[in-house]
Amino acid sequence: MGTLTELGLQNLWMPDYLQREMGQFNIFAINNTPGNFTNCQPYNRKGFYKISLLTGHTKLYYADKDLEFKESALLFSNPYIPYSWECFSEEQTGYYCIFTEAFFDEHYQIKDYPIFKPGSNPLFELTSEQVKDISGIFKRMQEEIATDFIYKYDVLRTLTQELIYKALKMQPVESRPLTESNGAVRIAGLFTELLERQFPIESPNQRVRLKFPADYAEHLSVHINHLNRSLKKVTGKTTSQLIAARLMQEARILLQHTDWNISEVSWCLGFEELPHFINFFKKNEVLTPKHFRKNH
């Protein structure tokens, strides 16, 4: 499913109120067979965000994480993070809805919600009471999308946001350094944005440009010592540690979810020599890239 243009439906007549919404949202029921392995290919991206209600013992392979739940869970995924899951129960049921960023207007920046951000927790285990509640929302979505109500996509937007808000309420409240509205926070924010702009790596021709703390200091026009102090103060980690952690996250994703050879992965992550990448990976993961790929 894609936008009207992607679907080749731009010349197809449809009511004005559907022109904007068609292809931006849909909902499906899940009914997987035993042992089903669902691979949501990361590099065939259509720009869809996805919220899934999954029931049954399931193991989720999300980016560089392995997550598992026994009963039921709510999963949030974005178009930039590859994932797959494997169900061990006799049957897996549930629902999922997909939507584009454009489905929400400028008042709701969907990508800014913490549950869709890289590094956040995408999975929320549910109690039986919560499953009943969440299932009810998906059922209302199914009923609503089948109606001819002219404002049905507004209702669907509201129901989607209801799922997001329910998940956000399940997260522990993070303590916020109220007195940290200073330069350190600003620099840490700019650094994080600069770092994240280089990911995800979607093609063997794409390469990380900024790899060393000095590269970031130069782009941010600050002294490297000032950058290090700011990041240490705000995050508790050094610039090198933050860069290494992000490179490792992407390395695990590429090794798990692509068939690129290790030299290609190494080059994409900015390493000039393959042995340097192997030593870097082994230092952080204990395993070599080859053994990591083999074990995942």
Task: Identify the notable features of this structure and list them briefly.
11 helices, disordered N terminus, 296 residues, transcription regulation, five-stranded antiparallel β-sheet, alpha+beta, globular, Homeodomain-like_sf, transcription, four-stranded antiparallel β-sheet, single chain, 9 strands
Structure notes:
Keywords: DNA-binding, Transcription, Transcription regulation. InterPro entries: Homeodomain-like_sf, HTH_AraC. With 296 residues, the protein is an alpha+beta fold. It contains 11 helices and 9 strands. The strands form 2 sheets. The protein has a 5-stranded antiparallel beta sheet with strand order 1-8-3-6-9, covered by helices on one side. The chain has a 4-stranded antiparallel beta sheet with strand order 2-7-4-5, with no helix packed on it. Strand 4 and strand 5 form a beta hairpin. Helix 5 crosses helix 7.
Average pLDDT score: 82
Distance between the termini: 30 Å
For the biggest sheet, the summary is: 5 strands, antiparallel
Low confidence ranges: 1-15, 173-180
- The shape, in one word, is globular
Strand order of the largest sheet: 1-8-3-6-9
Q: Specify Rg, calculated over alpha carbons.
A: 21 Å
| Helix share, percent | 40-55%
Instruction: List the helices and strands in order.
Output: HHEEEEEEEEEHHHHHHHHH
Structural class: alpha+beta
Number of strands: 9
Q: Tell me the fraction of residues in β-strands, as a range.
A: 15-25%
Helices, by number, come to 11
InterPro entries: Homeodomain-like_sf, HTH_AraC
Keywords: DNA-binding, Transcription, Transcription regulation
Domain HTH araC/xylS-type: 215-295
Organism: Mucilaginibacter defluvii
